[in-house]
Amino acid sequence: MSAALASDSFPKTQTIASGDLTSDLSITGAELRHLLDLATDVKQNPTRYATALRYRYLSLLFEKPSLRTRLTFELAIKQLGGDAVASIGLIGDREPVKDIARNLDRWTNAIVARTFTQQTIEELAEWSSVPVINALSDLYHPCQSFADLQTIEEHFGALAGVKLCFVGDGNNVAHSLLLNGARLGMHVCVACPEGYEPNAQVLAQAAAFAQQSGGAVSVTNEAVDGVRNSQVVYTDVWTSMGQESEAEDRKKTFAPFQVNAGLMSAAAKDSVFLHCLPAKREQEVTDAVIESPQSLVFDQAENRLHAQKALLLMLLA
Q1: Mean pLDDT, range 180-199, rounded to an integer
Q2: Lowest mean pLDDT among 89-98, 181-190, 216-225, 235-244
Q3: Residue in 165, 192, 236, 308 annotated catalytic
Q4: I need a surface site. Which of 78, 205, 275, 277 has the fewest CB within 10 A?
């Protein structure tokens, strides 16, 4: 797309040097800091960016159902002056992933993919000449974590030193929170049943980030130990899409990790509750907690829109 088509009425943004967002490791700490600052400005001054991505178009590929991710990406590109097209279904089922990538990069300016496997994201990026954005894979959920960090910073005024405990499965959401929270100086703990710890490689990378930033990462198999004095208590469903056959076993295993009033009482007095949604109320979280004044889940959901606008600006503006 010719640079002449871009609007000059909005502030120039820092770019993401890697050119893609295949995982949280695609973005540097400095770029992440800029993304959060930009997301705040976009949220406060939406009209300033209303034509920033005019004539830019997204391909949305969704292997899994989605409310927040799909609609916020559609709204984000449209509110920045562009548009999106969507395809629902398994990627690579009817034709090779490499062929899909080389069709979409002829038609659109970026590919947003929500997939069952990280391998699909990596293969799209290998064959695409336009940016590929990981909108969720089995290993990472970077776009969710950007909105989470924005929400936490809005509430507490800073990220460095804030203690967050993720309670439940050491899954893709936990991985992204570990990596990005640690990079910005947070203290991130994952409290999970034995055998459901985060990926060891992700944990090691997060620990390396924490050593550089002054943050900390930890894992415990005791929910109360993890939540104790935490300012942010975060949970997710116990059974993700694709794990349905494990649902009954997981209910029994994760029952001691339900976020309820008792568990929240161990957190800091100023603690807040987060959930990436959708929530299975009375399973991983009680209705009383998610509807309490401590709950920021809908602020968090709103910020998906603003954080993704910032991401698109950094990749496409």
Answers
A1: 98
A2: 235-244
A3: 236
A4: 78
| Residue of 68, 70, 114, 175 with catalytic role | 114
Domain 3-140+304-316 CATH superfamily: Aspartate/ornithine carbamoyltransferase (3.40.50.1370)
DSSP per position, 181-225: HHHTT-EEEEE--TT-PPPHHHHHHHHHHHHHHT-EEEEES-HHH
Q: Which of 189, 276, 306, 308 is catalytic?
A: 276
Residues of the chain with CATH 3.40.50.1370: 3-140+304-316, 142-300
- The verdict on whether 102 is a catalytic residue reads no
CB 274 within 8 A of CB 148: yes
Asked if 114 is an active-site residue, the reply is yes
Q: Give yes or no: 141 in active site.
A: yes
Q: What's the pTM value of the predicted model, to 2 decimals?
A: 0.95
* pLDDT (mean) for 221-245: 93
